[in-house]
């Protein structure tokens, strides 16, 4: 291997410092095993002579009950067929890139950079973090999750049109031939292998009525070898220690699903038992008891819940089932997600998000939470306080699996709004008369494990929506690899609706998935009296400054006046920057420290007035690159300009910075405008009056 550049050597040094002695020992063991496994690498020329599993009768018995296809709603069926027809033409969007080459995909080419990694190179000698070697690895890996083939298989299941099954068979055989064991970049990551096993299981399940299906799977020696190789890899290598986040869940879930569905190997029983134990243990570690994911990244909570439910349903169908405690934790993940959604069923944008799916059975959608709730309703039942859900193909098919229906104990009787273990609070109105005001407050840990890979430096940040429209927005993620400046910006403090002190982020960034120092927040008080809801918290991210600084924030929602007040107290005497990032649909007119906001073209039009702290000097930024400021990312690989309001200055000692966002109350508004006669403003004048101590549920 060529020597690593100094920047990568520095990253590895920082990374090792975040590991425990036990993790270092395990990683040393992995390095030794990877070196020893060079003799197990299979080339494309050798693939036909590779060791075969013992001969014998193989069958696939993990089938959907008769009549399941008929229960898929017509709208979901039509969307699946439309997406599948586009796939037959080779069209597919992958992480913001419109691909037209999926009739016969090149499994190793990155369409963003045009680079193609070596299919012959030993997997453990490939640095998948190097764009020079692999291009944008997310683009390369995404297609080899084979989820576009599960969609085609679903289209065949619903229509019996042989075009869909024929395309699945051609591409599966291509992937099997071009990716022999340990050759190429698709053998470098356990999470990819686990997800691929789930895809293979469901492709086989959905194609069961297709006459040649056995020739594609159990009667094809190469297919049987590939399924075994995938499981051998996961049995030998898994994410540990500081890397045991959503990756280890995907690895355990993939192993458990495949060992249940393809029981063709001498090791099957051991693989199943080990995967079940690993999944139960790591699900408990990766989630708070409330169900919120410990990575504090909403997108990954959805992903982990999907993985866990798929594995639990598969184990229930084949036995033995996972424990009642594991089922309860999965139910809590779905319940907590349902509680956090806004009136348009959109989740918070907290932390990283890469649109990862555990399984694709429906036409792709940017927001996967409605589908997860539909699956949750099919498996656990739907509490009265949940938002409305509609069945889709995934919920019909997963819910139809034998043993899928489960009762979970301890479910909340009313919609929760404060998750103390995760430091998450949601201040909201009912949305009965006016559009819902939805405000998420972040007052918990920085992230999960020592590297907190998917966390952002966002302590005490807020997200505010009006009728589901981002008003004060979390800008999102945008990228993982290849653009370090953009990766660093979207994770930084200044990219969130909070305060930066002393020209530095609250937490210290050590690389794309590495934090060296974590800012942790704690709630001081939280109360809801019906008319108002109030949250106060502080964090320790600036304790190392000289002199030490402290940031404390209070957020108050006055439901009657439809006002959100944000009071920031910063001690330490440092320069500060207070940022408010507007959603891409919001227009702004800044006049001194007053801003008129409007979003006339949104699905729920509206207007608001934002009064900013006069102690700071305010400026407006949009789509700037030097430095980066004023951007919004709707998904990985996508970014658009959006307005950022930036206040700079040095507040006086014990001088709070008060911001007040007042939403217009409308009776019959059809064309929102500050001069429209139907608009009325009710400004709160009780910014510093403490609310009563009585606690109550949000109104």
Plain-language structure description:
This protein is 32% helix and 19% strand. The model is unreliable at 668-699 (pLDDT under 50). With 699 residues, the chain is α+β, with helices and mostly antiparallel strands. Strand 20 and strand 21 form a beta hairpin. It contains 17 helices and 27 strands. The radius of gyration is 26 Å and the shape is globular. Helix 15 (369-380) runs parallel beside helix 16. The longest helix is centred in the middle third of the chain and has 21 residues, at 298-318. The strands form 8 sheets. Strands 11-12-13-14-25-18-17-16 form an 8-stranded antiparallel beta sheet, with no helix packed on it. It folds into 3 domains: 74-237; 247-416, no CATH class; 419-680, Beta-galactosidase, Chain A, domain 5.
Keywords:
five-stranded antiparallel beta sheet; 3 domains; 699 residues; disordered C terminus; single chain; alpha+beta; eight-stranded antiparallel beta sheet; 19% strand; globular; 17 helices
The DSSP helix count reads 17
CATH class of the largest domain: Mainly Beta
Sheet-strand content, in percent, reads 15-25%
CATH architecture of the largest domain: Distorted Sandwich
Average residue-wise pLDDT: 92
User: What's the oligomerization state?
Assistant: single chain
Sheet with most strands: 8 strands, antiparallel
């Amino acid at each position: 291997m060529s020597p690593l550049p100094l920047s990568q050597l520095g990253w590895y040094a920082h990374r090792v410092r975040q590991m425990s002695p036990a993790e270092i020992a395990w990683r040393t063991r992995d390095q030794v095993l990877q070196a020893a496994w060079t003799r197990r690498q299979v080339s494309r020329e050798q693939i036909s002579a590779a060791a075969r599993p013992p001969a014998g009768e193989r069958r696939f018995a993990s089938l959907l009950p008769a009549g399941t296809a008929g229960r898929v709603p017509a709208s979901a069926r039509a969307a699946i067929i439309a997406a599948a027809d586009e796939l037959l033409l080779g069209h597919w969007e992958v992480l913001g890139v419109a691909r037209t080459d999926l009739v016969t995909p090149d499994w190793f080419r990155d369409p963003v950079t045009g680079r193609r990694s070596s299919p012959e190179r030993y997997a453990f000698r490939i640095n998948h973090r190097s764009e020079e070697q692999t291009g944008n690895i997310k683009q390369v890996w995404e297609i080899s999750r084979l989820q576009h083939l599960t969609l085609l298989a679903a289209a065949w299941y619903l229509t019996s049109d042989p075009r869909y099954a024929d395309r699945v068979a051609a591409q599966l055989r291509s992937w099997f031939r071009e990716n022999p064991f340990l050759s190429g970049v698709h053998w470098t990551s356990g999470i990819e292998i686990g997800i691929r096993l789930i895809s293979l299981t469901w492709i086989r399940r959905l194609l069961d009525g297709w006459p040649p299906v056995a020739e594609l799977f159990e009667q094809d020696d190469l297919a049987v070898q590939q399924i075994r190789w995938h499981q051998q890899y996961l049995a030998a290598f898994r994410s540990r220690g500081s890397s045991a986040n959503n990756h280890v869940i995907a690895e355990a879930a993939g192993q458990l699903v495949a060992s249940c569905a393809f029981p063709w190997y001498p090791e099957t029983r051991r693989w199943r038992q080990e995967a079940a134990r690993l999944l139960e243990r790591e699900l408990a570690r990766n989630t708070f008891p409330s169900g919120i994911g410990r990575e504090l990244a909403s997108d990954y909570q959805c992903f982990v819940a999907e993985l866990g439910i798929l594995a639990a349903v598969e184990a229930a169908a084949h036995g033995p089932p996972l424990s009642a405690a594991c089922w309860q934790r999965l139910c809590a993940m779905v319940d907590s997600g349902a509680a956090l959604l806004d009136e348009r069923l959109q989740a918070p944008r907290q932390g990283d998000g890469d649109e990862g799916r555990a399984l694709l059975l429906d036409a792709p959608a940017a927001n996967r939470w409605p589908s997860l709730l539909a699956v949750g309703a099919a498996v656990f039942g739907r509490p009265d306080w949940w938002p409305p859900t509609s069945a889709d193909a995934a919920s019909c098919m997963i819910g139809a699996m034998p043993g899928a229906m489960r009762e979970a104990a301890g479910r909340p009787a009313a919609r929760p709004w404060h998750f103390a273990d995760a430091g998450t609070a949601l201040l909201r109105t009912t949305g009965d008369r006016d559009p819902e005001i939805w405000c998420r407050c972040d007052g918990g840990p920085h992230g999960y494990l020592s590297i907190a890979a998917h966390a952002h430096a966002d302590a005490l940040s807020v997200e505010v929506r009006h009728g589901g429209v981002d008003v004060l927005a979390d800008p999102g993620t945008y990228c993982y690899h290849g653009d370090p400046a953009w990766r660093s910006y979207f994770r930084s403090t200044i990219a969130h609706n909070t305060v930066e002190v002393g020209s530095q982020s609250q937490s210290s960034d050590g690389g794309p998935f590495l934090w060296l120092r974590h800012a942790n927040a704690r709630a001081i008080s939280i109360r809801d009296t019906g008319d108002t809801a109030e949250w106060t918290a502080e964090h320790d991210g600036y304790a190392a400054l000289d002199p030490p600084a402290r940031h404390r924030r209070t957020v108050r929602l006055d439901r009657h006046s439809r006002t959100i007040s944000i009071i920031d107290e910063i001690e330490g005497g440092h320069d500060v920057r207070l940022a408010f990032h507007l959603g891409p649909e919001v227009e702004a007119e800044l006049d001194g420290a007053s801003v008129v906001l409007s979003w006339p073209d949104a699905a729920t039009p509206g207007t608001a007035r934002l009064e900013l702290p006069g102690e700071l000097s305010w400026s407006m930024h949009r789509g700037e690159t030097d430095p980066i400021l004023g951007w919004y990312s709707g998904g990985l690989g996508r970014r658009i300009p959006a307005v950022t309001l930036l206040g700079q200055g040095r507040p006086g000692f014990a001088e709070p910075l008060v911001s007040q966002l007042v939403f217009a109350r409308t009776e019959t508004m059809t064309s929102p405008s500050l001069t429209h006669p139907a608009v009325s403003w009710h400004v709160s004048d009780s910014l510093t009056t403490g609310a009563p101590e009585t606690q109550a549920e949000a109104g």
